[in-house]
Amino acid sequence: MNRFSLSxxxxxxxxxxxxxPVMVLTGFYLNSFKDVLLQQEQEHLSQFADxxxxxxxxxxxxxxxxxxxxxxxxxxxxxxxxxxPLYKNSEKQSEEYYQQERKYxxxxxxxxxxxxxxxxxxxxxxxxxxxxxxxxxxxxxxxxGPFRKSGLNKVAQRARFFLEAxxxxxxxxPPSNEAAAFIAAPVLRNGKLLGVVALQVDSEIIQKxxxxxxxxxxxxxxxxxxxxGDYFSYQAxxxxxxxIKVGRELPISELPYPLYKAISGIRSIAVExxxxxxxxxxxxxxxxxxxxxxxxxxxYDEAMEVxxxxxxxxxxxxxLLTVGALLVARVLGxxxxxxxxxxxxxxHSIALGNMDLEVKMEGYKESYELAESFNxxxxxxxxxxxxxxxxxxxxxxELEQEMKLRKQNEQDLEKSYLQLSRxxxxxxxxxxxxxxxxxxxxxGSLVAGIAHDINTPLGIAITSTSxxxxxxxxxxxxxxxxxLTTGLFxxxxxxxxxxxxxxxxxxxxxxSLVKNFKQVAVDQTNLHKAKFYLFELVESxxxxxxxxxxxxxxKIINTVxxxxxxxxxxxxxxxxxxxxxxxxxxxxxxxxxxxxxxxxAMDVDNETILKVKDNGIGMEENIRRKIFEPFYTSKRGSGxxxxxxxxxxxxxxxxxxxxxxxxxxxxxxxEFVIRFPQTGEQL
Amino acid sequence: MAISVxxxxxxxxxxxxxxxxxxxxxxxxxxxxxxxxxALVDALMLAIExxxxxxxxxxxxxxxxVVDGESNWDQFSVRAEDLxxxxxxxxxxxxxxxxxxxxxxxxxxxxxxxxxxxxxxxxMEQSPNIVYxxxxxxxxxxxxxxxxxENIGKDVYLVGSDYVFPRTANLIIKDLLNNRDIKPxxxxxxxxxxxxxxxxxxxxxxxxxSLIINTINGDSNTAFFKALPKDKNMVVLSxxxxxxxxxxxxxxxLQGHYAAWNYFQSxxxxxxIKFVKSFKNKFGQHRVIDDPMEAAYSGVHLWAQAVKSAxxxxxxxxxxxLGYQSMQAPHxxxxxxxxxxxxWKTVRIGQVMLNGQFEIVWSxxxxxxxxxxxxxxxxxEWLNRIEAIKSP
Lengths: 683, 392
Prior knowledge:
The structure holds 2 protein chains of 2 kinds. The longest helix of chain A has 116 residues, at 365-480. Chain A contains 14 helices and 19 strands. Chain A has helices at 6-72, 74-86, 95-113, 151-162, 203-211, 257-263, 300-303, 305-351, 365-480, 486-524, 534-549, 570-588, 621-624, 644-655; strands at residues 116-122, 128-131, 166-167, 171-173, 178-189, 192-201, 221-228, 231-234, 250-251, 268-273, 279-287, 292-299, 530-533, 554-558, 565-568, 595-604, 607-614, 659-665, 669-677. By secondary structure, chain A is an alpha+beta fold. In chain A, strand 11 (279-287) and strand 12 form a beta hairpin. In chain A, 56% of the residues lie in helices and 18% in strands. In chain B, helix 3 runs parallel beside helix 4 and helix 12 (291-310) crosses helix 13. The longest helix of chain B is centred in the first third of the chain and has 20 residues, at 34-53. Chain B has 14 helices and 15 strands. Chain B is globular, with a radius of gyration of 22 Å. Chain B starts with a helix and ends with a helix. The interface between A and B is large, with 36 and 37 residues.
């Protein structure tokens, strides 16, 4: 079972509910803070960069103004007019020249003090006729001399031909042995060029301007460069790479991207990589006066130092909070868990069967109540346990008893079932015997009836025979007596004829009786299937039963159609009809002086319906329902076996595969209806 | 989490709801100037589309409002006021002629608004409410005259249309000639729109100048060049004749002559190749691009850049932010000179080729500081001199 302690769970919950939101929010705020800080820094830097551009532009504009001012001063005109005629194309000038020069020098010295390195006056032919610094450029021809490739030449030419003041960018200038930029303006009188006045801009001043970066960040730096085709050069010293010389041409491929953008005129503020390969926030600007690119930059890491500090502080605070959450969880967990742990110990003991321990009641309200309840519970548990043991023993005993009893019962049941099935077997045998004996009994009564009937004609025949013998003896005596007369003979003869006739009648009757009986007796025991006319069967049966039926005042009518042929067991029909007829005679007409019994039959749809109907006294419903039950009889005392109708029912159902029904109405009569298949195969 | 979702939702809402910035375009869509000015409208539309494709400015798209000045200066003035008061545009890009600019200038100053004027002009003007993106005289005329005198010849004939630009230009040119002790062989002016060049041509043929400095504007140029005999020793340097005019006059008539501009379509910088391609893709491969179109196009980008810097579209604040803006325009690096509100521009001289394009024969290499008032005279002297030539 992977279960954590309460303290661990509490920690997780405190962590999830408090720490995670705090962390997420902190992350979110830190992130927005970082964005805001960076944006702010960038805006800041942009503003500084714009200011720096303005500073440089204003500086150059001021220098241009200086030059323009100089160009319009009367002193410039006078200087040029004075010096050009005195000027000689050599290093050494005439005394006259120096006299004149000294006159003007203090006046133009003022401009040198305003941040200009040198002041030149150049004749229309290109001769530098005046220089404050008097470096090696003095007295050379700037259009054709050794320094004709310098910026001074460019600005002087522009002044000469375009009559326009202009500035050059910083390039290495050999006479000063440093980078120099020049600004020149034409000195005109009535639209005619008297000469050109030029200033050499103090590169230190530019350096100062670029070094004045403002703000508190140490890494802030201004880098300026200009481009010439596929080359570029730094225009002021860079802070971090002393090997970079101002004005030295470098291939364009070495240009750092922010500076490249600046030189290309693209204004931008972005996080980029500078010439050292350090990540910086860089503002790229273009300085039109100098045609320089300027990058105002500061190290990203330093700019974002505040963020880093805040980040580390946040991490520290979060860590402390996490530790705090752990401690709180531990203490809280301990306070909550201690009573529970006691409880657990006691529960363990109880589980091991030691019921006598009690939980110490301590801690806070809930734990106190819990301990109290637990103690109550364990006490009741103890009671209940001992009670239960008793109850279980009692119940077990009872169950065992019941089990025994049930087993006995089962055995008994089995025994009685065996006996029952044996009785059933006996009963069946007895039933079969009974049926057989009943058959014989009815045959016996038939024989008795027949014997009685034969007795009468036979008696008459015997009497007639003795009469015949008397007559014959009397005739013989008469013959021997010769007393025989014709008349006498004739009388004797007549008497003999009468006797013979009587004999004939009575013997014929006897023969007929015997013949019928024989038929019935034979048929009744006939087990073979054969075709017979139903009508004839009924007729011969009625004739055989006559000795019996005569006893009752009932007219028996056979209305069976003569053409019904059955292919069946005639003996069965004899028996069932005998039983039905005799049953009707014996029971159906009690107390009646006359009655009718009709036997009829019909073929309906492959079925033959045989009806035996009387108009006797009928029977009650409760009797009617029982008449097919074996051994039921209303004449038990008068010798009825109670099997007659049961046999009928058996024959119909089992041998003819038919049905038997009985309708009866008290006082009106009874009708038996038997249906059976005409050609039904019998089993 | 919920807060961040809320914040992002709010910011999303504020972005999607920000209305476009209306930008006025004031050029002649009808009248005699329409043929030239319509091309400027196309260039402006391309620039506006580019700014919008790049996300607009301050999270808002630019919506151009184009109105027709009908080649009528009074109409320009009325329309400019409409744009400012009714349409509430943040800036107007417009005008071709100096007369038009001078008509619109009081309106701009009245509302302290901002107009970007894209044509090269005679200078002698400096309005705090106009940014001049075309060349000042020292960025076109002065260097090219020097070049022509050095490279073509010193027998100079001045011919121009009779209005303020040619007259002022010639004033400056004559100063330059005077400085070199050159007297022009002749100086003639044609009435604006006139095609009767017979008098001028007769004079020229009589004096046989080696260098004709041409400040003729409009249709008169066609007549002038048709009448000018093909003579290797008589070369024309023109100041109002760019690719569009070469196309309409016929390159065969102009072949070998020169023009001075800041921009030629034939400049082979990556920026220009991209610009030409974008323009032709949008308006048709047969179209040509010239200097005023490039100046108009660059003006839109400079303005958008200044709006970003200012964080506002209010003209006064944008004007303040415009100082020292720079960019890589198709013709080179351009920057706005804060003092004059003109551009630092590179000067070029081109020779007409048979295909109608210019072969660049000279370039100032770097951008030239704009000097609307050439420093040979003071501002007041210049204004007096201009007054003098207006009422001789």
